[in-house]
TrEMBL record:
<dbReference type="InterPro" id="IPR036634">
    <property type="entry name" value="PRD_sf"/>
</dbReference>
<dbReference type="Pfam" id="PF00359">
    <property type="entry name" value="PTS_EIIA_2"/>
</dbReference>
<keyword id="KW-0677">Repeat</keyword>
<dbReference type="InterPro" id="IPR002178">
    <property type="entry name" value="PTS_EIIA_type-2_dom"/>
</dbReference>
<feature type="domain" description="PRD">
    <location>
        <begin position="301"/>
        <end position="407"/>
    </location>
</feature>
<dbReference type="InterPro" id="IPR011608">
    <property type="entry name" value="PRD"/>
</dbReference>
<dbReference type="InterPro" id="IPR050661">
    <property type="entry name" value="BglG_antiterminators"/>
</dbReference>
<dbReference type="InterPro" id="IPR016152">
    <property type="entry name" value="PTrfase/Anion_transptr"/>
</dbReference>
<protein>
    <submittedName>
        <fullName>PRD domain-containing protein</fullName>
    </submittedName>
</protein>
<dbReference type="GO" id="GO:0006355">
    <property type="term" value="P:regulation of DNA-templated transcription"/>
</dbReference>
<dbReference type="InterPro" id="IPR036388">
    <property type="entry name" value="WH-like_DNA-bd_sf"/>
</dbReference>
<feature type="domain" description="PTS EIIA type-2">
    <location>
        <begin position="510"/>
        <end position="654"/>
    </location>
</feature>
<dbReference type="Pfam" id="PF00874">
    <property type="entry name" value="PRD"/>
</dbReference>
Length: 654
């Protein structure tokens, strides 16, 4: 046998960094320098240049990453490059590992190590290493790997084996999005054809809608993945046994739809066990009662324990964060979601959420409320919640807050339009129609010489030139144009941002302390050690006690506080500090934090008296550090506390 050289773990790490580089550029869509990207990945600028060359080599006829005077940005073929190279079964350690797992799952009697090595063109020692990795994948799956001489065999239930396939498929998919090509790589090229699943999904959504259900598109891809796994296993004679639990009318109805569509599109006849299992997945992941469903029907479906737990935790969160979420309709919708989540947790059938990362970085305050709710539900109901599941709770919270705070975001405006027939009335009507969600017109001046100094609204929209320019005065045409609308929206956004950051600057100057500043963080012993070091400075200053530090570490374990690619904000959920203070740590180069890398760690200790400031500081602080160029400026020039504060204020002031 002639063994082919296997890809080493080090080469896998390099490939993963190349993928992450491509992911960062694709997500941001902007130019980024080699130095900035090197900080984000924890490598040198020279490595970034070699990664760019390697990534572009994946799509020889196109460009995955563009190069220019401003650095690098994602090219037209970025998506193709992310998927390139995944089809080879033995090309990378991950591909080969998946092949070995598939072989184990498809061979109840086990596999022979030497035969497998020959088939994959690697050495038996390499397959032994892969089997060791398989063991590391089995945690929590109720599967065991048995080894006898050259034979290796998986033992466990069919459901446990499907969970392992699901885990592999999720590993193949980027950011939780449903990818049929990745799914087929996991199941093998001989699996049910990927082309069938587009029509399958379309028909299933239509039939569920006809039954009066709202369909969660974020969850349906995950369910289609499970249907694909079920179809593949049934074709191999590995169907599920029927559950001993009684089948509900809803399960039976949805199971019949899935069975009919599986036969039509996939050519697979599902058994009773698979129909019931997949119907349960649909009911707990994909659908919710339609708008026509009576409220009493929804209440009747709720388990009292779930309803009580959600009500108590939401009421506590509303009080703790001063947010307007303790409403009956919100509690009912969230309780229905949590009840489905409880059923999924019993099956270890977690839902992926492709919006997790963006929700966390764009709406950190909403995500923090969701973490608080998730922590309370974990304590009351025993649900271990992952970031993706917390993100679904954040979507519920964000929807409620959007309803309650939309009016608070309106800016007031005065229209200056000298009277001529009904011209000013037409203009006001156009402004209300086109800009009503951003501004509220509270006055109209029809004089050609208005008292400009007496106009005190947030914005002034004028058809005549003002005596002096101002950031809040926007020149518009008597008949509103698209360009006028864009200028007004831009001015409104600028004013809102300026006010937010002005409040932030005022707050931060109160909370920073030169004695709680560290440059050159050491992440050798992980996030906990960094939290203890920064927390120790606040303990020494009498701001918090050691218990606060421990609770900060516990909060970090629930969900990483790396809210952007550069910033982590560790904190405890209870506001028990004697006063609000922030300990700052800078890292150059970046350090690992959760699944990200950061350059700034801001450990925040809030006091009970600063509840209202929590939202301002938390959300706007994250906003400042969401811009990579600003982070680089602050980290590079902030060689001491005074320099850090000067640069931070300069960035805030723009």
């Amino acid at each position: 046998m002639r063994a082919r050289t296997a890809q080493t773990p080090e080469e896998d790490v390099t490939r993963a960094r190349q993928d992450r580089l491509l992911g960062i550029l694709s997500r941001d869509g902007e130019w980024a320098t080699a130095a900035t990207l090197a900080d984000a990945l924890g490598v040198t600028p020279r490595s970034i240049r070699s990664y760019v060359t390697a990534v572009n080599a994946r799509v020889r006829s196109g460009t995955a990453i563009e190069s220019g005077p401003l650095g690098y940005r994602a090219g037209a073929d970025a998506s193709a490059a992310l998927r390139a190279g995944g089809g080879s079964d033995a090309g990378t350690t991950r591909d080969r590992l998946h092949t070995v797992v598939r072989s184990l799952l498809n061979a109840p009697e086990g596999i022979d190590v030497f035969e497998t090595a020959e088939r994959l063109h690697v050495s038996p020692a390499t397959v032994d290493s892969d089997l060791a990795r398989v063991r590391s994948l089995l945690g929590g799956t109720e599967l065991t790997l048995e080894r006898s001489a050259s034979q290796a065999r998986l033992r466990g239930t069919e459901m446990a084996q499907r969970r392992l396939l699901s885990r592999l498929a999720h590993d193949e998919m980027d950011a939780g999005s449903f990818d049929l090509a990745a799914l087929r790589r996991t199941l093998g090229v001989g699996s049910v054809g990927a082309r069938a699943f587009g029509p399958f999904k379309t028909d299933m959504v239509a039939e569920l809608g006809a039954l009066g259900y709202f369909v969660n598109e974020f969850g349906i891809g995950d369910v289609v993945m499970h249907i694909a796994i079920a179809a593949d296993r049934v074709e191999r004679g590995r169907g599920l046994e029927r559950s001993v639990a009684d089948e509900t009318a809803s399960q039976r109805e949805i199971g019949e739809i899935i069975d009919r569509l599986a036969l039509r599109h996939l050519g697979v006849q599902l058994g009773a066990g698979d129909r019931q299992h997949l119907a349960t997945l649909v009911l707990t992941r994909v659908v919710a009662p339609g708008a026509s469903a009576p409220s009493q029907d929804a209440h009747a479906r709720l388990e009292p324990e779930v309803a009580d737990a959600v009500r108590d935790v939401v009421t506590l969160a509303a009080s703790e964060f001063l947010v307007d979420i303790a409403h009956e309709d919100f509690i009912l919708r969230l309780a229905l979601h949590v009840q489905n989540l409880l059923h999924r947790s019993r099956e270890q059938a977690w839902s992926r959420n492709p919006l997790t990362r963006s929700l966390k970085s764009t709406y950190p305050m909403i995500f923090e409320v969701a973490v608080f709710i998730a922590s309370g539900l974990q304590e009351r109901l025993g649900i271990p919640l992952l970031d993706d599941e917390i993100a679904y709770i954040a979507m519920h919270v964000g929807g409620r807050l959007e309803r309650s705070r939309r009016a608070d975001q309106l800016l007031t405006a005065t229209i200056v339009c000298p009277g001529y027939y009904e011209l000013h009335e037409l203009l006001r009507s156009s402004v209300d129609r086109s800009l009503g969600q951003a501004i509220e017109v509270v006055g109209v001046e029809t004089r050609v010489d208005p008292d400009w100094g007496a106009i005190d609204t947030d914005l002034v929209l004028t058809t005549i030139d003002p005596p002096a320019p101002s950031d809040r005065i926007v020149r518009i045409q008597p008949f509103l144009t698209d360009s006028d609308i864009e200028r007004v929206q831009s001015a409104a956004s600028r004013i809102r941002r300026g006010r937010r950051l002005a409040r932030l600057r005022t707050e931060l100057e109160r909370y920073f302390d030169p004695r709680a500043f560290v440059r050159g963080l050491d992440a050798t012993h992980g996030e906990e050690a960094v939290i203890r070091r920064l927390g120790g400075l606040l303990v020494d200053d009498g701001v918090i006690d050691q218990d606060y530090v421990e609770r900060t570490i516990q909060r970090e374990a629930l969900s990483s506080t790396a809210f952007t690619d550069a910033l982590a904000v560790p904190h405890a959920m209870a506001m028990t500090a004697t006063r609000t203070a922030i300990a700052i740590g800078l890292a150059d180069p970046s350090i690992p934090w959760g699944e990200a890398r950061v350059q700034v760690v801001a450990m925040v200790a809030f006091s009970e008296t600063d509840r209202e400031a929590f939202q301002t500081v938390f959300e706007q602080f994250v906003e400042v550090f969401s811009e990579r160029d600003s982070v680089q400026r602050i980290v590079r020039r902030g060689t001491d506390f005074a320099g850090f504060l000067d640069e931070l204020v300069a960035v805030i002031d723009g």
